[in-house]
Structures are given as C-alpha cells and as structure tokens.
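Notebook entry, cofactor series.
This is the third protein in the set we're modelling with a bound small molecule. For this one the ligand is zinc ion. I'm keeping the input format identical across the series so the outputs can be compared line by line later. Sequence and SMILES below, as received.
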Amino acid sequence: MMPWVHASIGAFVGGRVGKAGNAFSAGVVSHGVADLIPHRDYDVHVELPLAALTIAYVWWRHGISSPEMLGALGGLSPDGENMLHRFGFVQRMLFPTHTDHRWFIGHGRSVKSPASQIVIAALCLYAAHRMGAKRR
Ligand SMILES: [Zn+2]
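Returned structure with ligand:
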C-alpha cells in the first residue's frame, strides 16, 4: 500500500489509541493489516512526496508529539526497509508483509486503480481530524 495511505491509517489508529508509545505500535500493526488489502504501489518519485505531505499535514493538524503523529510515523515506519531495499542498502526485508522469510503473512494483490486507497486515506484523515478536535 502507498506510504501516505499507511500514514493516514496510522494517524487514525494512533488517535484512537491515544497514548504515545501505543499509538506508534498501533500504527506499525495497521501497516501489516493494510498491506493485505489489494492495492497499487507507485514509483518512489510519486510515493515520497505524498508521504511527506501527509506527515506535514498530520504535524500541522495534530502536533509533533500527538498520538496521531506517532501513529502516522508508526504506520509509515515499515516502509523504511522498503526504501532501503529499493535503493539497494538491504538485500532482504523483515516485515511480515514484505519479506520472503517464513513469517511472511501475505501481501494484497495488485490492482490498477488507486481509488480504494484514496478513499481509505481520506476517511482516516477526516476521522482523525474530527476525533482530534473532540479530544482538545
Ligand atoms: Zn508495506
């Protein structure tokens, strides 16, 4: 799944969990679940700017130390090894939806349209926005 979508889902689950350390962990777990959904991945030149914009938005909207921000970073973090792999810095990945190790749990099939991911991300960012406003 596209990293900005992982960050969006992570912002939502992080906000729901509410506590910083748990929010980051919940974001990491959400990455694994979201990777199982059929999705389309793009080139790094598309994915990096979108991820940066999403993180900037979550930072602006919720704050740098908010559970939403930590959840977003947790959701994004497994794609760190993806980037290192794409650029040739690591040979094998370890995350259960990225790896070829025996703990591989699967990866969603590839689809042509990014529409489902855009809808999921928009709903998560909107829900995090609304629920974050109630918490303050
Ligand atoms: Zn992934």
